[in-house]
Amino acid sequence: MEKKWTTHSSEEKYDNRWINVTEFQVTNPSGTPGIYGKVHFKNKAIGVVPVDADGNTWLVGQFRYTLNEWSWEIPEGGGPLNEDPIEAAKRELKEETGMQANRWSVLLRIHTSNSVTDEEGIVFLAEELTHGESELEETEADLKVWKLPLTQAVKMVANGEITDSMSMAGLLMIARQRGL
Predict the structure, then answer these.
(1) Within 10 A of 45 (CB to CB), how many other CB atoms are there?
(2) Distance (Å, rounded) from C-alpha 110 to C-alpha 121?
(3) Confidence band, pLDDT 50/70/90 cuts, at residue 139
(4) pLDDT tens track for 59-76
(5) What is the pLDDT of residue 56?
(6) Which residues of 79-93 are buried (b: 16+ CB within 10 A; e: fewer)?
(7) Do 96 and 145 form a contact (C-beta atoms < 8 A)?
(8) What DSSP designation does 142 have?
(9) Strands 43-50 and 120-130: what pairing?
(10) In this predicted structure, what is the pLDDT of residue 11?
């Protein structure tokens, strides 16, 4: 039998155009009163693993303010909750790498940190790629794009060089599908 949480009250603590933070007064499943915080994301997390016919992929690297460190990742960003996620994926791939893809498929759906947030992510595989000019946002001025063999990107996950959850999940899913 499923034990339930009881919510007694809630109070918004913070709100901006990307997130909302709410604190809840609760009774947990064991019957103990307490508080619970929830971060609500106002966009879906969208990730893209581009793969060409030769088995290469592209990572994007940038300084992540929240981590205070450089991070190699798949192309990713946010898509409005009411937008078809594939449209956001196409936009993110073009924006960050300049590429477009003729073939798209969903690799996976992920909850990025379900103990504190309701953020849902969708990772796509993009194939049959064509190249063009990127259209970076102002926060991506230091973004670097790196073409490398897909097998090398998967090794970077295994070695702890890629730690972004959506990148790890997407790359490992492709590795599993392709027997890498």
Answers:
(1) 22
(2) 5
(3) low
(4) 999 888 888 999 999 999
(5) 96
(6) beeeeebeebbbbbb
(7) yes
(8) T
(9) parallel
(10) 96
